[in-house]
Design brief:
Family: Belongs to the ABC transporter superfamily.
Protein name: ATpase component of various ABC-type transport systems
Number of domains: 1
Order of helices and strands: EEEHEEHEHHHHEHEHEEH
Radius of gyration: 18 Å
Largest sheet: 6 strands, mixed
GO molecular function: ATP binding; ATP hydrolysis activity
Organism: Clostridium aceticum
Number of helices: 9
Strand order of the largest sheet: 6-7-8-3-9-10
Number of strands: 10
CATH superfamily: P-loop containing nucleotide triphosphate hydrolases
Pfam family, one: ABC_tran
Strand content: 25-35%
Shape: globular
Bound molecules: adenosine-5'-triphosphate
Structural class: alpha/beta
Length: about 260
C-alpha cells in the first residue's frame, strides 16, 4: 500500500517554568492511504502534541513530516495553506472548536469557503448552493436540515461533535486527525460517534490518525496502533495483535484497565 504520511524522527520539547519537558521524543511512523493509525497512551504521553505536529500547528525541534511528496515544515505559508486542504482535524471539544455565535451551517461551510475551487464528488449536485451543501454534509453525519440554523448551544454534545465531523470531511481530506473525538461525550453517545467516523472513513476512503487514551476505542477504530509513553513509542502493532503475548507491559496495563 502507498504511504500517505511519513513522520521521521520527530522531537518536540516545551519550556515549563524554566524546565524543558520533552513531549515527543524521536517518533517515527507511517500512515498508509486509507488506513486508520491509532495513537494511545495516558494523559501527558504526548499524543496531542504529535497530532498538532502532523497538522503543522506546531513546529518540531527537529524531524520531518512528509504528506504525499511534501515536507510540511518546509512549506511556505501559502503552500501550507494549500496543503491544509489535505489534512483536517476533529478535536475533543466541539464547544471550543465551533464558533458559538454562528448557526451551525455557517461553521460547516468555513473550510469550503476557504477553498472555493474544491468540490468533492459527494457534493457535486449541491455545491452551487451553500445552504444545500451544508444540509448535505449535515445529513451525512446524521443531522437534519432542521439543525442547520441552530447555534451550537442549542445542540447536544453528540450533535455538536457531528457538526465538527461534517466540517472535517467537507473538503474530503486525505487525512483526518481525530484527537480524542469522543472524550467529552456521554458514554452512550461515544459508540455512535465512533461508528459514524468508521463508516465515513470506509465510504470516503480517508486515512485517519485516531488519538485516544481509551485503548478499546483505538482498537475498534484502527488498523495499526502506536502506544505512547512519556513522549516515546513503546509498542506498535496491528490492531488484531492487541492481546498478543508479545505486547509491551505498558500496553497490557492499558488493556487490563478496560477489560
Ligand atoms: N503548549 C504547551 N506548553 C508547555 N507544555 C506543554 C504544552 N503542550 C503540551 N505540553 C506538555 O507536553 C507533554 C505532553 O502533552 P500532550 O498534551 O501532548 O499529551 P497527551 O497525551 O495528549 O495528554 P492529554 O490526553 O491529557 O491531552 C505534557 O507534559 C504537557 O504538559
Amino acid at each position: 500500500m502507498k504511504d500517505l504520511l511519513v513522520a521521521h524522527r520527530l522531537f518536540k520539547s516545551y519550556n515549563q517554568s524554566g524546565n524543558s519537558v520533552q513531549a515527543v521524543k524521536d517518533v517515527s511512523f507511517k500512515i498508509q492511504k486509507g488506513q486508520c493509525l491509532g495513537v494511545v497512551g495516558e494523559s501527558g504521553s504526548g499524543k496531542s502534541t504529535l497530532g498538532r505536529l502532523l497538522l503543522a500547528l506546531e513546529q518540531p525541534d527537529s524531524g520531518e513530516v512528509w504528506l504525499k511528496d511534501k515536507e510540511i515544515f518546509q512549506l511556505k505559508e501559502r503552500e501550507l495553506r494549500e496543503a491544509r486542504r489535505d489534512f483536517q482535524v476533529v478535536f475533543q471539544n466541539p464547544t471550543a472548536s465551533l464558533n458559538q455565535r454562528l448557526p451551525v451551517w455557517r461553521s460547516v461551510m468555513e473550510p469550503l469557503n476557504n477553498f472555493p475551487e474544491v468540490c468533492p464528488p459527494f457534493l457535486s449536485d449541491v455545491r452551487h448552493s451553500p445552504r444545500d451543501t451544508a444540509a448535505k454534509l449535515l445529513e451525512m453525519v446524521g443531522l437534519k436540515a432542521a439543525h442547520m440554523d441552530r447555534c451550537p448551544h442549542q445542540l447536544s454534545g453528540g450533535q455538536r461533535q457531528r457538526v465538527a465531523i461534517a466540517r472535517g470531511i467537507s473538503l474530503l481530506p486525505e487525512l483526518l486527525v481525530c484527537d480524542e473525538p469522543t472524550s467529552s461525550l456521554d458514554v452512550s453517545v461515544q459508540a455512535q460517534i465512533l461508528d459514524l467516523l468508521k463508516r465515513l472513513q470506509t465510504e470516503l476512503g480517508m486515512s485517519y490518525l485516531f488519538i485516544s487514551h481509551d485503548i478499546a476505542a483505538v482498537g475498534m477504530m484502527s488498523d495499526r496502533i502506536l502506544v505512547m509513553k512519556e513522549g516515546q513509542i513503546v509498542d506498535e502493532f496491528m490492531s488484531n495483535q492487541i492481546m498478543s503475548k508479545d505486547r509491551h507491559e505498558y500496553t497490557r496495563q492499558l488493556v487490563a484497565v478496560v477489560s
